[in-house]
Inverse folding.
């Protein structure tokens, strides 16, 4: 058994690894893969000489010298795929094997022998691995920057950035490989590891640090009550406060209406943050937890009886509580310190240490409650809906009192409600990671002077969203020096409109949003969008060539990577279509055509069907239509505001 547990990836791949049958399949998705690559890239840029530790790998050495994976297979599978995609010397042949999973073995054999997944036979049993390859190639390496930098782009440029990343990945990314004794009861060990408790989270440590600054025991109770409610991001904040009233006929002065109407008004749709010091129904457990050790040793969050009964109101938040706290830090303290406050929860404690002297816990908890209430009411969430694509729908709701607590659309006018959801969901699917959500920061900041939430006008809110979207487009299109006629030309020159798979996802979603907004206007409709019906913004994160890259020839080589030939689809759709010809994709009797396709994709398919082909002329025509619409973006928003 080895003494040196820290292993460079070059050392890790000196050995072979077996994934036993009792282990689950690879389950990492977009968020986990993107986070791993972004953390490595950020560490490289901060200090290329410092090691970056990505966790542990627990193994059992078999008699033939191979290592059976006990814990850590998710990260090992991810770095195996990354190493192969980067074309590293130690990834020329598979080092990861599977017990009794022939379809996965076949995938790795094909992937390693051909170096790509274009010719891998699609099978739902390996869909997760095909998706992972696409996710690795297209993950944005620096989410805090507007620069579009991906593994795929590094490889295509083949410059110093790729060389430095490959060297850092191989020599400085460290796995701690722990070898367990031969006589270990593996099944029991595996069960124990999967049932072990989680480590204390940063936001729980922050809670303890803030409470330590509060001297008054009663104020500590108030603080803990509000904090615990705000931390449950998937449950509407009003659900987390009791409505029970107290009536004392003999002494009316003791009458009490309950915490929910006290904080949120009789209809539960307002907010009185100055009333938090009057709440009465603080759970007994919270009264006990008033010192640091109690906070650190108790990670359970008490739920009210009503919350347990109100699961139908629960929806998935687009951000978790630690990252939400980073937004509050930046909203409240960005002008009080010289350094920037990053919107990334990994800096939660270090950021707090920087601003600790500026933080008054009781002022902070009031602001936290205010912005959490704003978030619930004016930021979309995803709700389960078995009838919807991907089994979820976007919701935007506000509380109301109707035989108890209920929820209705945030905006009464259905068209205005729909428009707000489109804008918000367009931003969410574009900037999908939970970190560095700059758009969310700016939306929350817009509410900083709006104490009466019922008086927020939908037109003002919508115009604020559209201004943000337009500004982001204008700041990033990099075509200011090109005339309109120049943009209409298709040639070898790479620009914002013609970058193949490196074309920013924002651009596709912005185009779809413009199509949709214009389709709602019967007056001055200048785009070919008569056939567009309602669609939903979903997590479509793969750039698809309608005329596949495998069809490239001397005649169309300058058009393959042009915006007119591209659309945004899901990873699974990209894998299924693979090298399908345009007519097969666009066929209205085929398996890919749907009435609720995103507008750009549907326009391309309809044009293919109208002309009975898709080639150079169709690409040029669609490209011209899209560029003309982009040039009229301000008019489109103005006409439909």
């Amino acid at each position: 058994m080895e003494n040196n547990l820290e292993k460079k990836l070059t050392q890790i791949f000196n050995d072979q690894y077996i994934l036993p049958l009792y282990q689950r399949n690879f389950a990492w998705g977009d968020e986990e893969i993107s986070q791993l690559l972004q953390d490595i890239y950020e560490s490289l840029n901060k200090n290329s000489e410092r090691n970056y530790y990505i966790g542990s790998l627990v193994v059992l050495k078999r008699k033939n010298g191979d290592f059976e994976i006990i814990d850590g297979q998710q990260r090992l599978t991810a770095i195996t795929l990354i190493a192969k995609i980067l074309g590293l010397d130690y990834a020329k042949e598979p080092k990861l094997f599977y017990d009794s999973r022939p379809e996965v073995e076949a995938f790795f054999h094909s992937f390693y022998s051909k170096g790509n997944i274009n010719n891998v036979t699609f099978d739902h049993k390996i869909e997760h691995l095909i998706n992972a390859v696409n996710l690795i190639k297209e993950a944005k390496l620096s989410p805090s920057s507007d620069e579009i930098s991906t593994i795929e782009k590094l490889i295509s440029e083949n410059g110093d950035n790729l060389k430095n990343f490959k060297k850092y990945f191989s020599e400085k990314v460290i796995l701690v490989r722990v070898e367990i004794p031969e006589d270990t009861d593996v099944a029991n060990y595996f069960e124990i590891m999967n049932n072990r408790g989680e480590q204390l989270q940063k936001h729980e440590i922050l809670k303890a640090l803030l409470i330590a600054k509060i001297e008054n025991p009663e104020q500590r109770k108030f603080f803990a009550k509000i904090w615990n409610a705000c931390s449950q991001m998937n449950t509407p904040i009003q659900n987390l406060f009791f409505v029970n009233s107290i009536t004392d006929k003999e002494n009316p002065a003791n009458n009490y209406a309950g915490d929910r109407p006290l904080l949120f008004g009789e209809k539960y749709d307002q907010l009185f943050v100055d009333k938090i010091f009057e709440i009465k129904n603080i759970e007994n457990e919270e009264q006990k937890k008033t010192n640091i050790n109690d906070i650190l040793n108790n990670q359970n969050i008490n739920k009210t009886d009503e919350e347990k009964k109100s699961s139908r109101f629960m929806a998935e938040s687009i951000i978790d509580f630690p990252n939400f706290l980073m937004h509050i830090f930046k909203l409240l303290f960005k002008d009080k310190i010289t350094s920037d406050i990053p919107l990334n929860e990994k800096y939660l404690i270090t950021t707090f240490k920087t601003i600790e002297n500026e933080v008054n816990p009781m002022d902070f908890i009031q602001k936290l409650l205010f912005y959490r209430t704003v978030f619930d009411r004016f930021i979309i969430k995803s709700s389960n809906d078995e009838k919807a694509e991907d089994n979820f729908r976007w919701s935007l709701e506000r509380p109301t009192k109707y035989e108890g607590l209920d929820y209705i659309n945030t905006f009464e006018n259905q068209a205005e409600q729909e428009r707000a959801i489109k804008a918000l969901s367009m931003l969410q699917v574009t900037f999908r990671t939970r970190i560095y959500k700059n758009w969310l920061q700016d939306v929350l900041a817009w509410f900083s002077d709006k104490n009466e939430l019922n008086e927020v006008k939908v037109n003002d809110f919508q115009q604020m969203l559209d201004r943000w979207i337009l500004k982001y487009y204008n700041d990033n299109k990099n075509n200011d020096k090109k005339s309109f006629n120049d943009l209409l030309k298709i040639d070898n020159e790479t620009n914002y409109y013609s970058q193949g798979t490196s074309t920013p996802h924002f651009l596709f979603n912005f185009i779809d949003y413009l199509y949709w907004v214009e389709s709602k206007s019967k007056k001055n409709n200048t785009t070919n969008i008569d056939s567009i019906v309602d669609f939903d913004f979903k997590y479509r994160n793969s750039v698809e060539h309608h005329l596949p890259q495998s069809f490239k020839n001397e005649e169309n080589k300058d058009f393959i990577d042009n915006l007119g030939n591209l659309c945004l689809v899901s990873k699974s759709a990209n894998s299924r279509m693979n090298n399908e010809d345009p007519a097969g994709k666009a066929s209205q009797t085929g398996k890919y055509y749907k009435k609720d396709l995103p507008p750009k994709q549907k326009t391309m398919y309809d044009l293919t069907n109208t002309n009975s082909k898709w080639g150079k002329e169709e690409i040029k025509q669609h490209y011209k239509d899209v560029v003309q619409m982009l040039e009229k973006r301000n008019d489109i928003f103005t006409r439909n505001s």
About this structure: Residues 182 and 528 are 69 Å apart (CA to CA). The first helix runs from residue 9 to 12. The two ends are 69 Å apart (CA to CA). The chain is about 45% helix and 10% strand.
